[in-house]
Write a structure and sequence with these properties.
Number of domains: 2
Strand content: 35-45%
CATH architecture of the largest domain: Distorted Sandwich
Distance between the termini: 35 Å
Structural class: mainly beta
Helix content: under 10%
Number of strands: 33
Number of helices: 5
CATH topology of the largest domain: Beta-galactosidase, Chain A, domain 5
Radius of gyration: 24 Å
């Protein structure tokens, strides 16, 4: 974790605190499960079902001030003792390290290790951690400061180097990476009422059950119990790290109340600026973002690319669909020269692709773009919102595969948008756009341009081959007189069918 990631976590924790979410319900704190018991997913489902029938109770963790007030540097000094690493030297292909509460990570979770169908609680003890020179350990070795989550390790490039590849910590947040990449955007188990005027609800994972992998295993399974004011739930994560890291997510929710705005496959990212809004930021770096676009494959097979924006006002876009095939927050820029950031290495951030398992029915891919002046804020959210509400007392299940890789899947038969630029047009009321496409497309004479705007007027659209790196470049001006917002759309065709993905963009002043 670098400083940007830590500060980003601080911002997320502050949002959750303002939303009034509990760290751990009094019922669970007073009567946690036994230290050792038979475990099964069906039993956990039964427990969540019963919990949903009870009123939700919230409380906060009484974390000592010297841990609650830890700085970024101090919190990083608290490390799990490597000689206690779980599954170390067992040849299982994975290692597990619990994470300490403190600083912004104030939500306690219970961790259970599952072996041969039996769950054993991992009890917190200060002697499990090295506290470093600037952090005073708890006076009582067994003081229940609790764990805040855990990380998983596995060799990704070198057999003797145990790379951290996944972390579960805070609310329902988790993140992963694949070989050669660094941590970037985050995922959430569930989003409720995102960007609603009455405020967002942040469910929490209160317990994790981590199955011991078989010897030489290539995957590891994690179960989680979710709780919130509106619902309880059970999650099963199957993690497979590698050149592309995949996480299979199976979830069942037990709504306490009717939920009208739920988000599945929720992703959080950051977009500060690129060539579309570069002039707003006095910064030596050409671009600053964890993701630069929303990629969608619709139920009908249409490929959509929507470049991200950092608007001056909150923007919410909904892409209505039936049985979506997938969506992603993607980082297409892969050159260091495009970022010039040696510390954060935005060129090494992963993309995250949500691939539904089964028919997700009617709904919409929702994109939320929040104004931001700093890269510490995750100001981009994307998720699938089912059209139907979740009725109280009625179980709801869904599944998807989450791919963490350098880019999102593309269609090799279609041209791909590789760059979007915006600047002053030919007069004071127009904006000029430059959109580049590369890939497998017909010769120049066989390609046609389709372009439209929901408001304003398209001026001087030009389609031309790009002799520098191949493909095609589209340039056009948008007359923005008296236009508060315009939805732009362009597509390259051969006159009968698409030869590129569909480029969409929302222009705002």
């Amino acid at each position: 974790m670098d400083r940007r990631e830590f500060l980003q976590s601080f911002a997320l924790a502050a949002v959750a605190a303002l939303a009034g979410e509990a760290a751990l319900s009094p019922a669970e704190a007073a009567a946690p499960p036994a230290a050792r018991f038979a475990f099964s997913r069906s039993a956990l489902l039964d427990e969540a079902r019963k919990l949903a029938a009870e009123p939700y109770q919230e409380s906060t963790l009484d974390l000592p001030a010297r841990f609650a007030d830890l700085s970024y540097e101090q919190y990083r000094e608290i490390r799990w003792k490597r000689d206690l690493t779980i599954w170390k030297d067992e040849g299982r292909g994975f290692r597990l390290e619990p994470l300490h509460t403190g600083s912004v990570y104030r939500q306690p979770v219970m961790l259970y290790l599952v072996e041969d169908g039996t769950a054993s609680r991992l009890a917190f003890n200060r002697d499990m951690f090295d506290y470093g020179p600037n952090v005073k350990p708890p006076e009582d070795p067994k003081q229940d400061l609790a764990f805040s989550g855990f990380r998983l390790r596995r060799p990704l490039a070198e057999p003797d180097r145990w790379n951290e590849f996944a972390t579960f910590q805070g609310a329902t947040y988790f993140k992963a990476l694949s070989k050669g990449l660094n941590y970037g955007l985050t995922a959430r188990g569930l989003a409720i009422n995102t960007a609603d005027p009455d405020g967002e609800e942040f469910p929490v994972f209160t317990r994790f059950y981590i199955e011991r992998p078989e010897t030489g295993a290539s995957s590891v399974i994690v179960h989680a119990l979710l709780d919130s004011k509106s619902t309880t739930g059970v999650y099963r994560f199957t993690l497979r790290p590698g050149d592309e890291t995949t996480i299979d997510v199976e979830l069942t929710l037990f709504p306490r109340v009717e939920i009208g705005h739920v988000g599945l496959g929720a992703l959080n990212s950051m977009f500060l600026y690129d060539a579309t809004n570069r002039t707003r930021f006095d910064d030596q770096r050409p671009a600053v973002h964890l993701s630069d676009g929303l990629a969608i494959t619709t139920g009908s097979g249409e490929r959509i690319w929507r470049p991200l924006a950092n608007p001056r006002n909150l923007q919410i876009s909904a892409f209505v669909d039936q049985s979506p095939r997938g969506f992603a927050l993607a980082q297409r820029r892969r050159s260091f020269a495009e970022f010039q950031d040696l510390e954060t290495r935005y060129d090494l951030k992963p993309s995250a692709w949500i691939e539904p398992v089964g028919d997700w029915g009617q709904g919409s891919v929702v994109l939320v773009e929040i104004p931001s002046e700093s890269e510490i804020h995750e100001n981009i959210v994307a998720y699938w919102r089912p059209k139907a509400k979740l009725p109280a007392g009625q179980e709801f299940s869904a599944a998807y595969r989450l791919h963490w890789a350098p880019g999102a899947p593309t269609n090799p038969e279609l041209g791909v948008c590789t760059d979007t630029r915006e600047g002053q047009g030919t007069n004071g009321t127009s904006r000029r756009f430059v959109v580049d496409f590369q890939g497998n497309m017909p010769a120049a004479g066989a390609v046609r341009l389709e372009i439209s705007a929901s408001a304003g007027k398209i001026l001087n659209p030009i389609l031309r081959p790009n002799p520098v790196w191949g493909g095609f470049r589209v340039t056009f001006d948008l007359d923005t007189r008296n236009v508060p917002l315009s939805e732009l759309r362009l597509l390259l065709t051969d006159g009968t069918k698409p030869v590129s993905e569909t480029w969409l963009y929302r222009w705002t002043p």
